[in-house]
Amino acid sequence: MEISDEEKRFLLTIAREAIKREFSSGKIPEPDYEKFPTLKSKSGAFVTLQLNKRLRGCIGYIISDKNLYDTICDAAVQAAFADPRFPSLTQDESDKIELEISVLSEPFPMKSYDEIEIGRHGLILEESGRRALLLPQVPVEHNLDRDAFLSALCNKGGFPADYWKEKTLNISMFTATVFSEKELEKK
Q1: CATH of region 5-104
Q2: For each of the chain's 187 residues, which pLDDT tens digit applies?
Q3: Would you say 31 and 13 are in contact if contact means Cβ atoms under 8 Å apart?
Q4: What is the DSSP letter of 97?
């Protein structure tokens, strides 16, 4: 999906404002769908929060029946207050977090592990009633090769790291448009 820098800035603003609204009666800017038609699209999206360059929350939706505007607002609040790996974000932390948004393509089936392109593909594992997802930027940020990426996906799903070597797993791939406040500050 093509998202302009202006749309990216707006999405980051609404994500931050959705989080701040939980602490006060602030208002999230309303979208101008004529100016930003992409915000009407129904796409999966994840919002990632970092504090001092460390993960502080990440929640999202693989697919969404809501428009992108509402999906981002909801994912931001969930990442801040409902990620089970972390306590709820405090008001003090909310001023210090850095936001990153990943807008996902439709998932598509993986036929072979050889199809995986590091930095391009995110992975979704659905196996034995469990689901795990890793965004495309994860292996780049953690310097993982394809094998380590697959092992990390298995671990996240609650399987042994080498589980993917035992059989071809039910894995879907997706691409994502990823952008952050930090990246857009430089532009």
Answers
A1: 3.30.700.20
A2: 789 999 999 999 999 999 999 998 777 888 888 998 889 999 999 999 999 999 999 999 999 999 999 999 999 999 999 999 999 999 999 999 999 999 999 999 999 999 999 999 999 999 999 999 999 999 999 999 999 999 999 999 999 999 999 988 999 999 999 999 988 887 6
A3: no
A4: -
Within 13 Å and on the Cβ side, how many CA atoms surround 135?
22
Alpha carbon distance 152, 116 (integer Å)? 14
| Verdict on whether the full-model pTM lies above 0.85 | yes
What does each C-alpha distance from 130 to 10, 121, 171 come to in angstroms? 34, 20, 12
Q: Which residue has the tokens 């671990």?
A: 155
The answer as to CATH 1.10.10.10 being correct for domain 108-174 is no
